[in-house]
Amino acid sequence: MNDRSMKKRTVWLILGGIAVIVCVLWWAYIQFWSNASEKEDVSAKREADWSFQKPKVPETKLTDQEECALCGSRKGSMTGMFSGKDAIGIISVNDWYIMDLKIKSGNEKGNMPEDTEGKNTTRTTVGKNGRVLERSSESLRGISEIVVDYGEDRVLSMEKASQILCQSCLEKLSEAMEVKCEEGKEPEPVDLVLIDFETMELYCVQEQYTKRSIRDYTLWMAHTEDTLEINAVYTPVRTEAGKNAGIKENAVPSSATDDSAASLK
Fold first, then answer.
1. Stated pTM of the model
2. Which of 48, 61, 202, 237 is the most buried (most CB within 10 A)?
3. Residues 6+ apart with CB under 8 A from 95
4. How far is CA 261 from each of CA 119, 130, 175, 221, rounded to the nearest angstrom?
């Protein structure tokens, strides 16, 4: 074999090697984008499988609306203690325990009692499943913080609620329990809800909410798998009357944003 034949063979080998490399790279490119497209399709499908849903409303077990724990005068419901009060509270629904956040105190004229100086901390265990509510409030400053350790019984039971709430209040509760849920499955909201004692309206605190404004109150919420933390501040329109009532300027977190529920992720 002469030199010319050797060179020709070498050239063909080089060209063949280049062709093989190009084919391998092209195959890898196609596989990469094919897999990426499949992942996007799966992700889009999963996104489409989730939506915000409300728990179904069962028929009330009550025969007398006056026995309703929310709008009636049911014995031991605690609602009568707070109804009409200019304050915000939280309800642990399954055990039906109501706690005033004590964001501010004072009588109807705005006078502040002397015993509101400093921080007041209350820790309460609710029911038999480890639910703990801890409240630290500085009412003179119009600030309160509450941390709820869910415990074991954390999923709302509309069946339990139907035994103590009238039909109208069951529907109101369901409206305030909207939560992100996979299509085809029953929503499982945490059995906690905010209540405005002045209007007796209920407000959702599920994980899609990080901030709520209720009349003159602003509440920021932080969620973990086992706890809910609420930082609440009395934020009225500043007037001379408000200053004379003794409510001091409040420090509003720099990260504060408008009321909103997180979008589906």
1. 0.71
2. 202
3. 126, 127, 131, 153
4. 31, 28, 14, 11
